[in-house]
Here is the input.
Amino acid sequence: MTAADGPPLRIGVLASQGGFARHVRMLRRLHADAREVRSPAELEGLDALVVPGGESTTIMKAIERDGLGPAICAHVERGAPLLGTCAGMIVCDSEHLGLIDAVARRNAFGRQAQSFEAQLDFEGIGGEPIEAVFIRAPWIESYGPGVEVLASWEGHPVAVREGSVLACAFHPELTDDHRVHALLMAMATSARESAREGETSR
Ligand code: GLN
Here is the structure.
């Protein structure tokens, strides 16, 4: 899958900590130009960004240490898509980078259910339910009117979207089902097209 025309989508995966390698691998399988990102300069000009799972406190510390916060916010402000998974969902929430109007609850499923798999109906990816791998996952505790819930588990939102930001509590990079990454790439393709239309109508 590539952009309708032009070069492959350039997609950064925040590689400060956590499960970035599997995201890079999956995006490359989908023919994106996927690269690890660790500095504000590497965030420039990306068609999309992934914030992976890991440990949200460690990822937030690295974001602060490396001065990445303003660059990530600027990426979203210019309408470029971002996918946050698991700890990445927490990083996106209004108590952290404030990229979505939602509050995530850490380790929400409790000790008994630290890791589990579930078949989830996921709005907007078509077809069969998605096999979702949850690992000490958060859920969305509360959210504002601009937030669309794409998937829920036991009544709790576990995938949400607000504008160009997509956040899921599970790990879509750990199965062979690439539909969440394909959704991110479709969002990136349309963001690229609207940026191009903006340029030509100016
Ligand atoms: N429990 C972790 C946190 O709170 C998230 C776990 C994960 O990303 N798999 O940051």
Remarks:
- The first helix runs from residue 20 to 29.
- The mean pLDDT is 95.
